[in-house]
Amino acid sequence: xxxxxxxxxxxxxxxxxxxxxxxxxxxxxxxxxxxxxxxxxxxxxxxxxxxxxxxxxxxxxxxxxxxxxxxxxxxxxxxxxxxxxxxxxxxxxxxxxxxxxxxxxxxxxx
Length: 110
Hints:
It is built from 5 helices and no strands. The chain is mainly α. The longest helix is centred in the last third of the chain and has 26 residues, at 84-109.
């Protein structure tokens, strides 16, 4: 139960941080790019340095709500340590399935 609480608290603040960044840079465009880059950098720094509860709170909770792209990028790096082919397949599948899912949803909604 404590693990769920940590993820929830981190997620709460991550979502607020995302909102603040989007509001601050939305007029200039590229808010998603900025959020994804910041989140990816933060997860790269934090993941090897934090303990289990900090990972739940900050990496999974805060950064997970701030940007899911950082989690995707971290997964790719971890997979690449095991197999570059597996990492490449994961990237292609994630992007391909994501675009296909958006297109299908868009067509259904129209």
